[in-house]
Write a structure and sequence with these properties.
- It is a single chain.
- The chain is α+β, with helices and mostly antiparallel strands.
- It has a domain at 16-90.
- Helix content is 29%, strand content 16%.
- The radius of gyration is 16 Å and the shape is globular.
- The N and C termini lie far apart (35 Å).
Length: 109
């Protein structure tokens, strides 16, 4: 966690206050399925998906999810931005206000 999800607001902090906030604000929505350890593991896995895409294309993607009939969070869209000419990828100036669950499935086709 110190390496992959550090607190940037207070670099000298150990991260516990920051991670507690993340769990209280976001993780508790999934506590009937995931304990704290599983929640943070899944969040870091999602970050790995973003990192893999960023590594491949050189730009930060936005990952959007939807919910299937069983209530599972599944990958829906990956956003990348292009310049005005539509010919080159650019860093997105803003991302949509959407989020994924802490456990993401790939939809079946």
């Amino acid at each position: 966690m110190q390496k992959d999800w550090p607190t940037l607001a207070c670099p000298s902090g150990n991260g516990v206050t920051f991670w507690s906030h993340e769990w209280d604000k976001h993780g508790t929505c999934s506590e009937d399925v995931l304990d704290q350890h599983s929640y943070f593991s899944r969040a870091l896995s999602l970050n790995s998906i973003k990192s893999a895409i960023q590594s491949g294309v050189g730009y930060t993607p936005f990952i959007e999810c939807n919910t299937d009939e069983s209530g599972n969070s599944q990958l829906y869209q990956v956003y990348l931005c292009v310049d005005n000419s539509g010919s080159k990828l650019i860093e997105c100036p803003a991302f949509p206000h959407a989020k994924c669950g802490s456990q993401i499935e790939f939809p079946s086709f």
